[in-house]
């Protein structure tokens, strides 16, 4: 670094200072004009987008009107066919009932095959109250209040 680098650059006074200011203002004006043209381009693009949006909105509204007309037409046709079916059902109700009775499918009551060991029927479950079980001696000693029956789990509880 030299000594001249340490000395601040002094701008001129008077006339030179005015020329610098004019140059700065010209640069600012050039930037402003550039921004103005860019804004004009953006506005043109936005106007095109708005025109496209209006066009698409018109097409969508036409489609909605067409679909509503189709819905109305199909609703009328559905109502006509429903009324026709109900009238025919009322007219031929006796014939339909006779045909249903004539071709009825009857199935005999189901009988469960219990020949397989896993399908064997179980015996009745004793649900007598505890006081009756105690009176008949089916309760073991009361060492475990939650236990009912003999101490050996392999033996069934005798039925009364």
List the uncertain runs: none
Total number of β-strand segments?
0
**Main sheet characteristics:** none
Question: Would you tell me the overall average pLDDT?
Answer: 82
Give the amount of beta strand, in percent.
Answer: under 5%
The helix/strand order is HHHH
Give the distance, in angstroms, between the N- and C-terminal Cα atoms.
Answer: 119 Å
Outline, from the CA principal axes? Answer: elongated
Task: Describe the oligomeric state of these chains in a short phrase.
Answer: single chain
Provide the helix percentage.
55-70%
Q: Please give the radius of gyration in angstroms.
A: 51 Å
Structural class: mainly alpha
Quick recap of the structure?
With 160 residues, the protein is mainly α.
Please describe what this structure looks like:
Helices cover 61% and strands 0% of the residues. It contains 4 helices and no strands.
Q: Which descriptors would you attach to this protein?
A:
mainly alpha, 61% helix
Topology:
Layout: H1 3-6, H2 15-91, H3 93-102, H4 130-135
């Amino acid at each position: 670094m030299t000594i001249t680098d340490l000395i601040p650059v002094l701008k001129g006074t008077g006339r030179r200072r005015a020329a610098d200011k004019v140059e700065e203002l010209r640069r600012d004006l050039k930037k402003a004009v550039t921004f103005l043209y860019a804004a004009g381009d953006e506005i043109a693009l936005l106007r095109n987008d708005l025109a496209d949006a209006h066009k698409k909105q018109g097409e969508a509204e036409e489609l909605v009107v067409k679909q509503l007309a189709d819905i109305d037409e199909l609703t009328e046709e559905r109502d006509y066919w429903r009324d026709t079916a109900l009238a025919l059902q009322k007219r031929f109700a006796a014939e339909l009932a006779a045909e249903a009775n004539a071709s009825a499918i009857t199935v005999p009551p189901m009988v469960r095959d219990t020949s397989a060991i896993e399908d064997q029927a179980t015996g009745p479950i004793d649900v007598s109250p505890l006081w009756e079980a105690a009176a008949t001696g089916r309760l073991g000693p009361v060492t475990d209040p939650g236990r009912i029956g003999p101490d050996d789990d392999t033996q069934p509880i005798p039925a009364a």
